[in-house]
Amino acid sequence: MVAKSIKDSKFPIAYWSEYSQPIISNLELKKTSQGEFHGPCPNCSGVDRFWIKEFNGEVLVNCRKCQDYKAIKDKLKDMSLWPSQSSAPPVRKEVRTESQVDWPESNDMSKHPYLEKKKLSLHNAKIEGDKLVISIIDVTGKRVGYQYIDAEGKKKFSYNMPVVGHFSVIGGPIKDFAYITEGWANAATIHEATDKPTIFALSANNIPSVVDAISQSKPKCELVVAGDNDEAGRKACETTFEQHGVEYILPEQEGWDFSDLWVIQGREATRKALTVANVMDQIFMPEDAVPQLSRNYLIKRWLTEGGMSVIYGQSNVGKSFFALDMGWHVGGDNDWNNSKVNGGSVLYLATEGGMAFHNRVVALRQHYPNQNNVKLAVRPSPVNLLDPDVDMASLIKLCAEISKRHGPLKMIVVDTLSRAMAGGNENAPEAMTSVISNCDKLRIITKAHVSIVHHSGKDKAAGARGHSSLRAATDSEIELDHDEVTGLRTAKSTKQRDMETGTVFTFKLKVVELGIDEDGDAVTTCVIHEASESEIAEASKPKIKGKNQLIMRNAFTQLRGEGVGQPNHAGAGFPEPRTYWMIQEEDLRNHFLGKVSNASNPRSSYKQAIDALISAGHLVQNDGFVWFLDGEGKC
């Protein structure tokens, strides 16, 4: 009934070969033993209630929760996963992905619908009526029965046929090597892709028994299990390895078998996936070592290409401005503060600040007027990286579209971790590892560096807030700090997996005025601006400390605020004219004494304070005048 209603609807036909893989990949569907692909519904978000399957070469869709396939198709059309109404019906063709789909030509395909669907030759099967018939044998070669496959792929064995330890062989005879797999189409696929003998073991559960039988009959033959990447397939592979030490290979995509890979991506991709690595390829000896000189950085000395980083610090330290500035330079492929950049497109997930990021990007555009064509894509909305069923599919699609339009994605910034955890507990290992897993998935799929903006805890010395698994997983860690006295901020590389730590960048937040709002007030934001050598030197001086020294500093500031004093003049012992604000020492002494009148010896307190300030290089005394040498003492 569902099939009829879908087929008779006003919606254009979505052919399985054209649309199945984009739907499966974008919605992260998993294949079931019934041949359906299940996952969250794009219409009602029902978990594992949505399904797609093939029917006569077409895509059937529905959800067992909302039962509204029309709304589902509308959602899929919005996601470019279903043909639009205005489009002509697509020609039945195979999806081409990274590899050329190049099945071998065969006249056998036209003889049976199942062969046509699977893009396979007849091999050891025969056609009887509407069924494929495959002979099943024991280890001596004696036939024990048959498997029958109809046009829709439904399978059954001969009545009372013994299964355990029995199989069928495509591309025999078996000599020194053979693959073993659970289904006939898988076996035919593997043989066509590799030209190696392949054993059809009848089912996943029967693979260990078939391996046992073949190993006894052909003890010198190397066997490799080509398993299905589903629960039953993985279990069979693991059991066979534990019992017999036989290596196994799985398709990379969960829910796939090698027949799926063959149909969707073709011969070359399947052949590569079936390549058996030599165990010795995992190591190298001293005489084989060669220097690895190719660049592996995103921002040299700071971020690795394709890695993960955490940028953390206290609130209002400038984390977002810092991360956005990095993203701007990666997106423009411009050196960042004297560090080389291996740039490309950038996705900035602005979960905090929302539309304020428009102002921040406008400010960057004004601050760097000569940096054009910056491929920085900002997404100013919340994101959930805790639950993979919420935003991951749409994020992966967004990343793919950015790469398609603006070139390979090189960096993804998550600002901030707290908001991206969608209420999850940062201190809980389960929650933190889930977020890390989803960030890793983004890295693996996009090959981009993922940078996470995060907060430090109450104890700054303890590092970033939350469970320690975050620091263990990250390749690079950058700590931001703020000196409230000087206004300078520092970024320090505190962890590098593949680079030297300790790199420091000192900067200020520079206020940028963007315009006037409807109330007549200035609209401002900030950009980061590298601190000058003199500012860094000033900030590195010992800080004023001690109760009476701070009172002296405060007294000077108050007097200056009231207009007492003047810019310094020229003369012996004075700096360049109008460099510092100077006040007569008598005025400063009288003001100070008024503040410490309750002290046991106010004049002694004054002398000790002024001597200490002069000795530490904070204050200069000359010709009856005094002035402070820090930034606030300048004119």
What is the topological layout?
Layout: H1 2-7, H2 16-27, E1 30-31, E2 37-39, E3 50-55, E4 58-63, H3 69-78, H4 113-118, E5 125-128, E6 131-137, E7 143-149, E8 155-157, E9 168-170, E10 177-181, H5 184-194, E11 198-200, H6 207-217, E12 222-226, H7 231-244, E13 248-249, H8 258-265, H9 267-273, E14 297-299, E15 303-304, E16 308-313, H10 319-332, E17 345-350, H11 356-367, E18 376-379, H12 392-406, E19 409-415, H13 417-420, H14 429-446, E20 449-455, H15 469-473, E21 476-482, E22 489-496, E23 504-516, E24 522-530, H16 533-540, H17 547-561, E25 566-567, E26 581-584, H18 585-595, H19 602-615, E27 619-622, E28 625-628
Parallel strand pairs: 10-11, 10-12, 12-13, 16-20, 16-21, 17-18, 17-19, 19-20
Antiparallel strand pairs: 1-2, 2-3, 3-4, 5-6, 6-7, 7-8, 9-11, 14-15, 21-22, 22-23, 23-24, 25-26, 26-28, 27-28
Helix pairs in contact: 5-9, 6-7, 8-9, 12-14, 17-18
What is the structure about, briefly put?
The chain has 635 residues and is of the alpha/beta class. It is built from 19 helices and 28 strands.
Please tell me how large the radius of gyration is.
Answer: 35 Å
What do we call the CATH homologous superfamily of the largest domain? P-loop containing nucleotide triphosphate hydrolases
Q: Quick one: overall form?
A: elongated
Helix content: 25-40%
Low-confidence stretches: 1-9, 86-110
Describe the structure.
- The longest helix has 18 residues, at 429-446.
- The chain is elongated.
- Helix 8 (258-265) packs antiparallel against helix 9.
- The strands form six sheets. The chain has a nine-stranded mixed beta sheet with strand order 18-17-19-20-16-21-22-23-24, sandwiched between helices. The protein has a five-stranded mixed beta sheet with strand order 9-11-10-12-13, with helices on both faces. Strands 1-2-3-4 form a four-stranded antiparallel beta sheet.
- A hairpin with a 6-residue loop joins strand 21 (476-482) and strand 22.
- By secondary structure, the chain is of the alpha/beta class.
- The protein is built from 19 helices and 28 strands.
- The protein has four domains: 2-78; 109-280, Dna Topoisomerase Vi A Subunit, Chain: A, domain 2; 297-536, P-loop containing nucleotide triphosphate hydrolases (Rossmann fold, 3-Layer(aba) Sandwich); 541-633, Arc Repressor Mutant, subunit A, CATH 1.10.10.
